[in-house]
Every structure is written in structure tokens, then in C-alpha cells.
Amino acid sequence: MEKMAEALESKGYRVVNLGYDSRHHSIETLADDVRHRILTKTNDVEAIHFVTHSLGGILVRQIQATKPLPNLGRVIMLSPPNQGSEVVDRIGDWWFFEKVNGPAGQQLGTAAGSFVNQLPPIDFDCGVITGDRSINWINSCMIPGKDDGKVSIKSAQTDALKAFKVVHVTHPLIMKKKSVIRDVLAFLETGAFNGSERN
């Protein structure tokens, strides 16, 4: 997320670029840890905005569902598995998947009773940008419809979004695309992407 962080800083935002160890912890544990670290670094700000990638969007949803930040601003999620991942459905119990994706990854199934599908609806200003280009044909073979190699367009969507946009980019590179960075800046300022409509 370094390129995204640099663009935000150039526009005057104070950026806290946080990582998290999803290979060893559950979504609940990760969300608690991220929330704690955010609060220690932002105790003097009026609003906290988020730009997340993939699982990061689910962590924000978990934070707001359990210990909401009272000064949450706008949230932009890049390729979030808001309705889970079909890849997890197919191979989530394989040993190498667990080794690579950890406990948090195994919580991202698409079943009605899965962790992500038990989260309450979004009740904050949120926009989602996702991709329709894949370079991971193995994953894409498991995902119905268009996808970015990890998350289907359908799965990235959820109710109550203020804006939704599909761009021609892959999952690991979406945060580096110039048009995506411009859309992130636009949403932070106006609550809408450049020329986008909710679809």
C-alpha cells in the first residue's frame, strides 16, 4: 500500500499504514489488535478514514460490529470478500491453504453461516472498488463469474454501499492502479468515485 499511502500524504492526509498477521490469527483477534493500534496513533484526530485491501475491509466491518470507532469517517474497500470467497469453499480445508492463509483466511467461506455473512450490514459511508482481471487461473477456475484472481465481483458487493466500481486490474495490484488512487481520493473528499454510479 506504499504507493497509495504516498498519494494520500501528498494530499495532506496523515497515513497510518498497518499490517496484520493473518497467517496466525483469527479475524476477531486481528480486528482487536488493529483497533488498538489505530487508537494509539489517532487519539487527536476528528475522523478516521480507512483504505483497505482484501481482508482489511472485513476487519473494519468486524471492528464496527463489535467495538465501533465513534469517529469513523469514510471507508474505501479494495477487492473485499464481503460475501466470502469461493476458493475457501473449495480448498479452505487443505493443509497448504491453511499454511498460506491462516485462520483468518479459513473464515472467509461463502456459506450463509460463515463469519463474513454473519457480520451486520454496513452502516457507515463505504465505497468498494474491485477488479475483473485475473492472472491466477487456478483460483479463477473455482470462482463463478468475473473475478480478480481471488474475489468475485459478486462477492465484493454488499448492501448499503454508497458507491461500487469495477476496474480492469488484478487482486494484488489494485491499490497501485492510478485510476483507483484517484477514485480513493475522490471518495474521501466527496463520498463518490469519479464518474461512478452504484450498480
Q: Which key terms come to mind for this protein?
A:
about 200 residues, Rossmann fold, four-stranded parallel beta sheet, 4 strands, 8 helices, alpha/beta
Fold topology:
Blueprint (H helix, E strand, L loop, with lengths): L1 H9 L16 H15 L6 E6 L1 H12 L5 E7 L7 H6 L3 H12 L19 E6 L5 H6 L10 H4 L6 E5 L10 H13 L9
Overview of the structural elements:
With 199 residues, the protein is of the alpha/beta class. It has one domain (2-190): Alpha/Beta hydrolase fold, catalytic domain (Rossmann fold, 3-Layer(aba) Sandwich), CATH 3.40.50.1820. 39% of the residues lie in helices and 12% in strands. It has eight helices and four strands. It has helices at 2-10, 27-41, 55-66, 86-91, 95-106, 137-142, 153-156, 178-190, and strands at residues 48-53, 72-78, 126-131, 163-167. The chain has a four-stranded parallel beta sheet with strand order 1-2-3-4, with helices on both faces. β1, α3 and β2 form a beta-alpha-beta unit. It starts with a helix and ends in a 9-residue tail after the last helix. The model has no long low-confidence stretch (mean pLDDT 90).
